[in-house]
Amino acid sequence: MWSHEDPVTLFGAEVNRKGWAELGPTFDWLATRFSECTSLAYEIIAAGAGGDLGYLVAIERITAVAHGSPATYELRATTVVRREEGVWRVVHRHGDRYQPG
């Protein structure tokens, strides 16, 4: 799903990383902190694509076990994708806590 080619970046609610050498281990670490996802819903705010780039801006609503405890939370998330050899790959994601109102 994620590109292994630079540039590739993650600006997350938990961590900020760049390059696959940093992102790969980060995803392994995140997998130890989040589990048992029972619900994931996207409220798409905007999306588009042109040429070999595309983007998705959404509010993500998630129910899972986070840091060992059941949790429901919302994130504002922007995802950028790039077409690489005919396959769309994530090259950037920015996510942070969403506080409506």
Shape: globular
Q: Give the percentage of residues in beta strands.
A: over 45%
Question: Over all CA atoms, what is the radius of gyration?
Answer: 14 Å
Oligomer state of the chains in this structure:
single chain
Largest sheet: 6 strands, mixed
Task: Give the overall average pLDDT.
Answer: 94
Structural category is mainly beta
**What's the helical proportion of residues?**
10-25%
Which segments are poorly predicted (pLDDT under 50) over 5 or more consecutive residues? none
Strand order of the largest sheet: 2-1-6-5-4-3
Q: Report the span from N to C terminus.
A: 33 Å
Q: What is the overall number of helices?
A: 1
Strand tally: 6
Spell the H/E element sequence. EEHEEEE
Notes on the structure:
The chain is mainly beta and 101 residues long. The protein is 14% helix and 63% strand. It contains one helix and six strands. It has one helix spanning 20-33, and strands at residues 9-11, 16-18, 34-50, 53-66, 69-84, 87-97. A six-stranded mixed beta sheet has the order 2-1-6-5-4-3, with helices on one face. The longest helix is centred in the N-terminal third of the chain and has 14 residues, at 20-33. The radius of gyration is 14 Å and the shape is globular. It starts with 8 loop residues before the first strand and ends with a strand. The mean pLDDT is 94.
